[in-house]
Amino acid sequence: MPRLAALLLWCGLIWPLQAQVVDTWAFSSPRVQEQALSVAAKIRCPQCQNQNLLESNAPAAIAMRHEVFAMTEQGKTESEIINFMTARYGNFVRYQPAFATSTLILWGLPPLMLSLIALVLWRGRKTS
């Protein structure tokens, strides 16, 4: 009877646990591994909110992560990999979008707002 109780306890504790995705990749060298992880950390998962490819376990992120690892093994540079991913998935996957006409508001609005705030504070202080 104690064996049955132990088995039921073990099944009761283990059964509710869900499997996690185990991502194993054999890199050719530590330098390649460091580069691949660095690039994957700079690319956003297209399915997740504010998670990079290393943090996300979404199927799209896993596929993209493997693609980044494979491209790094092939000798591609960081900019080549990021440009490829941007062309394939759009600017959303970049944490720092390129400076272009379509991203002008994104890059120009913060300095403009800071300038306006400084001007308002300076004028308010001058009149007081």
Automatic annotation (TrEMBL):
Transmembrane stretches, start-end: 104-122
Keyword Transmembrane helix: yes
Domain of life of the native organism: Bacteria
Gene Ontology molecular-function annotations: metal ion binding
GO biological process, one term: cytochrome complex assembly
UniProt entry keywords in alphabetical sequence: Heme, Iron, Membrane, Metal-binding, Signal, Transmembrane, Transmembrane helix
Sequence ranges assigned to domain CcmH/CycL/Ccl2/NrfF N-terminal in this UniProt record: 15-123
CDD domains cross-referenced by the UniProt entry: CcmH_N (cd16378)
Leader sequence segment: 1-19
Keyword Membrane on entry: yes
One GO cellular component, as annotated: plasma membrane
Family stated for the protein in its record: Belongs to the CcmH/CycL/Ccl2/NrfF family.
Task performed by this protein: Possible subunit of a heme lyase.
PANTHER family tied to this protein: CYTOCHROME C-TYPE BIOGENESIS PROTEIN CCMH (PTHR47870), FORMATE-DEPENDENT NITRITE REDUCTASE COMPLEX SUBUNIT NRFF (PTHR47870:SF2)
Protein name, as recorded: Cytochrome c-type biogenesis protein
Species in which this protein is naturally found: Chania multitudinisentens RB-25
